[in-house]
Structures are given as C-alpha cells and as structure tokens.
Known about the structure:
- By secondary structure, this protein is α+β, with helices and mostly antiparallel strands.
- The protein has 2 helices and 3 strands; from the N terminus they run H-E-E-E-H.
- It starts with a helix and ends in a 9-residue tail after the last helix.
- The relative contact order is 0.29.
Amino acid sequence: xAGKSDDRERGYIVISTTLEEAKKYEGxxxxxxGDVYPAIYxxxxxxxxxxxxxxxxxxxxxxxxxxxx
Length: 69
C-alpha cells in the first residue's frame, strides 16, 4: 500500500494545457510524478517536491490555472 512517504519520494510534476513555450502557462496542475493524466496536458516542470512545484506554478502559470493537489 502506497503511503504519503512514497509520494514524497516519487516527487511531483506540473502539467499544463499550454501546447508551446509561453511566458505564462494555462491550466496548470500539480500531480504526483508517474500518475496518468489526460493527453491534453503536457509536463512543463519537475519532478520536484510538491512545494517546489507549487512555487513554480505561482511564478509561471496564469491565475486562471491554479495548482491542485
């Protein structure tokens, strides 16, 4: 059974619906590294700690796409 410590060891990534390089990404979400996510998203940051991913989202993603965990 996977516990919270397993999630921390795996790390997290940031995914976005923005298809190309941009100053601000849209539709950002923080998800555990290795989780399956819809094909409309692509990885834009990570793997890193959940806290680092949330900081990256705050600095690089538009307000309309808040981080979720």
